[in-house]
Amino acid sequence: MDNRIKKLAEILVHYSVKVKKGQLVKIQGETAGLPLMTAIYEEVIRVGAHPYAVIKVPQNEEILFKHGSKEQLEFISPMLRLEINKMDCLFNVWASENTRYLAGVNPKRMAIQRKAHKPLMQRLFKRIGDRSLNWVGTQFPTLADAQEADMSLSEYEDFVYSAGHVNDRDPVKHWKKMEKEQKRLVKILNRIDWLHIKAPGVDLKMRVKGRKWISCHGTENFPDGEIFTGPIEDTAEGVINFNYPAVYMGRRVENVRLEFKKGVVVAESADKDQAFLTALLNSDKQARRIGEIAIGTNYSITRHTGNILFDEKIGGTCHLAVGASIPESGGVNKSSIHWDMVRNLKKGGEILADGKIIYRNGKFTI
After folding, report:
1. Over residues 80-106, mean pLDDT
2. Which of 363, 216, 213 is nearest to 293 (CA)?
3. 254 near 44, Cβ under 8 Å?
């Protein structure tokens, strides 16, 4: 086994999730991620907790979306309800053999299932927010994900582990340093009212007064590197275009442009797969509002890969999510979707706080 896998498992168990003896721990992912899932399982056993692994089968998901009845799409297993309420820790290991396995599925059928699962999603966010459930999502490098990123497998492995500073002598030291700096920025951002993002093709304002900015430094996503909040839901005004592809449930939407009025997307366009974009925005009444606004701070991630775990963390970018808010931030938007879309701000981008520039060309100026 690659020693980096073992080291990553140790970071995730002891730093990110902080598993404790006696806790109920779920580890889930596809078969492609079994090396990391197994390493996490072994480390959890060493702690004295109670792990169990759930293998996701993409082919079964495709069958359900293509051939399931409306009743079957809306069905929620009682076992899933039990898990949401009983597990103490959750590890999501993302690893794909085929990143496009849902490309041929009707997005309206996906929306039916997402809407039915909305209460469970809200429950999950609530438990994460009140710290009754500790979780982390991470990437295990596979051929499919490497191809998506236009890299060889060895290049992609180096990219993944470098983004998380797994190769450092003391990776946790890096993440604690990031936490200290980001909490300094969060203190400043927590005092502002109006946030204004400007760049070529972008002129978007929103209010964030009273909302809580959150520092993300490796404890829920790994690798990490962002600060975010949930804007006041009816305040977004203006336009934003995204110069990185917006990827969701295996679908890739190119050159998304959104126009907001009174917090709602009133017009949307895309050069590729606009029908999917519109279908997801119509998932429910709240899907057209902003649930999250964030700034990427991981400057070890220097390129777009089509994987939102990395793309939304790219240093020098911002991203917003349409749909559900993260309750921890004070956001109250409830939706069946949470779709992050990324905008590069390194060339001509600015962020203003109450009219004063705080960020320019991909770097904070405060």
Report:
1. 93
2. 213
3. no
Domains of the chain plus CATH, in order, are: 3-163 (3.40.1830.10), 174-364 (no CATH)
**What letter represents residue 213's amino acid?**
W
Neighbours of 173 (CB within 10 A): 11
Q: Which H/E stretch holds residue 8?
A: helix 3-11
Identify the three-state secondary structure at position 9: helix
Q: What is the pLDDT of residue 107?
A: 85
Of 109-113, 207-211, 219-223, 296-300, the least confident: 109-113
Dihedral angle computed from the Cα positions of residues 31, 37, 38 and 43, in that order, rounded to the nearest 10 degrees: 180
Q: Is the pTM of this model over 0.85?
A: yes
Pairing of strands 221-222, 134-139: parallel
The pLDDT tens digits of the residues spanning 253-287 come to 999 999 999 999 999 999 999 999 999 999 999 99
pLDDT at 52: 97
Residue 1 predicted with pLDDT over 90: no
Rounded Cα distance, 152 and 303, in Å:
15
List of residues 6+ apart from 169 with CB closer than 8 A: none
Phi, psi torsion values for 98, nearest 5 degrees: -150, 110
Between CA 360 and CA 364 the distance in angstroms is 6
124 within 8 A of 85, measured Cβ to Cβ: no
The rounded distance, in Å, linking the Cα atoms of 121 and 295 is 24
Q: What is the mean predicted confidence (pLDDT) over 11-15?
A: 98
Buried b (16+ CB within 10 A) or exposed e, 340-359: bbbbbbeeebbbbbeeeebb
The DSSP 8-state label assigned to residue 361 in this structure reads T
